[in-house]
Write a structure and sequence with these properties.
This protein has 75 residues and is α+β, with helices and mostly antiparallel strands. The protein has one domain: RNA-binding S4 domain (Structural Genomics Hypothetical 15.5 Kd Protein In mrcA-pckA Intergenic Region, Chain A). Helices cover 21% and strands 31% of the residues. The protein contains two helices and seven strands; from the N terminus they run ββααβββββ. The strands form two sheets. It has a five-stranded mixed beta sheet with strand order 1-7-6-3-4, with helices on one face. Strands 2-5 form a two-stranded antiparallel sheet. The longest helix has 9 residues. It is globular and about 25 Å long.
Length: 75
């Protein structure tokens, strides 16, 4: 069972990454198709709020959530 307080830190090797890319990079989702569907269905949060923009720019410190898992963007 996933700990709801756990946040995985994921280093992106830079200052910015797009939401769709980060979901795959962090291992929260596997393919572009599942990313697109999850975002369109409102199943993805950024900093606790639903975000429907696959191209949303994420920066270090942003926290992305999906299916009870959370990952924090790190440089």
């Amino acid at each position: 069972m996933t700990n709801p307080d756990q946040i995985d830190d994921v280093s992106i090797g830079g200052d910015m990454i797009r939401l769709g890319q980060f979901l795959k990079f962090a291992g929260l989702l596997d393919t572009g198709g599942t990313v697109k569907e999850a975002i369109a269905d409102g199943d993805v949060t950024v900093n606790g709020e639903v975000d429907l923009r696959r191209g949303r720019q994420l920066h270090p410190g942003d926290i992305v959530g999906f299916d009870g898992r959370r990952a924090r963007v790190r440089p």
